[in-house]
Amino acid sequence: MSDKYIDFVSGGFGKTLADRLGLPKPVTLRRHAGPGTPLVTGPVLVVSDESSRTDADAVARAMLPWGLDVRRDTHLAEDARWGAVVVVLTGITHPRDLAAPVLELGSTLRRLGRSGRVVTISRPAVGGPPAPEVTAARNGVDGFLRSLAKELRSGATGNGIVLADGVGVVTPSALGTLRFLLSARSAFVDGQPLLVTGPGAEDPSWDHPLQGRVAVVTGAARGIGAEIARVLHRDGATVVGVDVPAAGDSLAAVMNGARGTALQLDITAPDAAERIHAHAVARHGGLDIVVHNAGILRDKLLANMTPDRWNDLIAVNIAAPLTMNRTFVELGRAGGLGPAPRLVALASTSGIAGNRGQTNYGAAKAGIIGMTRALAPTLAELGGTANAVAPGFIETEMTSRIPPVTREVARRLNSLQQGGLPVDVAEAIAFLCSPAAGGVNGQVLRVCGQSMVGQ
């Protein structure tokens, strides 16, 4: 879906007018275009404080097999447009330790390329050493990162990897998360610190990390669900698309394109999970990935909310996933799921920050986040993970029906000053389903361009 405003301010009179009036000048984001897409465009600089130097050296070496031009000294590329800057802060013990690496980063930002990347690597404030200075320093990274992301321009993003104490900087999940955040697959992920609590496993292939896996996507007939099915297929998975019978024609078209199978099913049916599992096993030999994407809207101010609007939405958006998950867990304990099952549920920034006229939707999506966190330990026992993805304003058929002025304002209320695309959500889900994300569990990955509200 074209953003006419971006087209207008990208050159000629529109750019001149935007410059004169101080209007936002978002740029078209660089997105993954399939095999052969460069991970970043330009050299990658790795900086650190003195106490994190050993970890920084290890990260720099680990990135070399990715075909990157990795450098440890800003003076080695004084005329270069940096593709990315990785800031390693794993060893800091006092807020003053931030000064040298942060100021070195600042000296490079004017030469950060279009759709460039800044990624911090640090340790968590909670659960770490009890010394107040250490906790303050680690928590300071979070505030620094979120603020920096709001300063970046030209499609650049700032994100963070928070490695639990004991997780090494070159474990598969640490490197897999770094690779995702550096890549064009993370185009609409911004201002996001992502906690990595375990080592994960090596991806068999960057282009096809889901090869041999069977995935189920609910609500797959259109919009974000259809794009999830396509991206999971692109990454090697065999996909089962699920949607209501009324969407049967659309579902069949999507699944034909993704070379998967379609299952017409109301997910609120008490036996929905059993039927999904039976279909996946009968047609494809197993089930490894479940993506809870299906959802409905029944927006109304609470003063005008009716029982049917509230109850219908809760039934589809949160009660059905809860019921299905109980069955999937039972199946997993009985050996009915793959050896490293992945469960990903669609939350929303409305479930984090709230949204006017969406008390029912906000309650359901906040419920998804709670469900995911509660399921994470159980999935870990099964060798898998449970995570949530929280989209912000995404350009879909649904958002195209928002009144024009409201829609235009909603597009600009994030650091990237534009709406995301369904593929941005799908890329985040595909990453969380990959082997390398095995150390990411119980987390909420926001795909919102760093919305100006909420976190």
SSE pattern: HHEHEEHEHEHEEHEHEHEHEHHEHHE
Which strand order spans the largest sheet, edge to edge or round the barrel? 9-8-7-10-11-12-13
User: What can be said about the biggest beta sheet?
Assistant: 7 strands, parallel
> How many E-type strands?
13
Helical content (DSSP H or I, runs of 4+): 25-40%
CATH architect. name of the largest domain? 3-Layer(aba) Sandwich
Quote the CATH topology of the largest domain: Rossmann fold
* Count of distinct structural domains: 3
Q: Name the CATH superfamily classification of the largest domain.
A: NAD(P)-binding Rossmann-like Domain
CATH class of the largest domain equals: Alpha Beta
Give a description of the structure.
Strand 3, helix 4 (99-108) and strand 4 (112-122) form a beta-alpha-beta unit. The protein starts with a helix and ends in an 8-residue tail after the last strand. Helices cover 39% and strands 16% of the residues. Helix 10 packs parallel to helix 12 (359-381). The protein folds into three domains: 1-29, no CATH class; 31-196, 3-Layer(aba) Sandwich (Rossmann fold), CATH 3.40.50.720; 214-447, 3-Layer(aba) Sandwich (Rossmann fold). It has helices at residues 4-9, 12-21, 53-63, 99-108, 132-149, 172-182, 223-234, 248-257, 272-284, 307-333, 350-353, 359-381, 404-412, 422-433; strands spanning 44-48, 70-71, 82-88, 112-122, 157-163, 193-196, 214-218, 238-243, 261-264, 289-292, 342-346, 385-391, 444-447. It has 455 residues and is an alpha/beta fold. The longest helix is centred in the C-terminal third of the chain and has 27 residues, at 307-333. The radius of gyration is 22 Å and the shape is globular. The chain has a seven-stranded parallel β-sheet with strand order 9-8-7-10-11-12-13, sandwiched between helices.
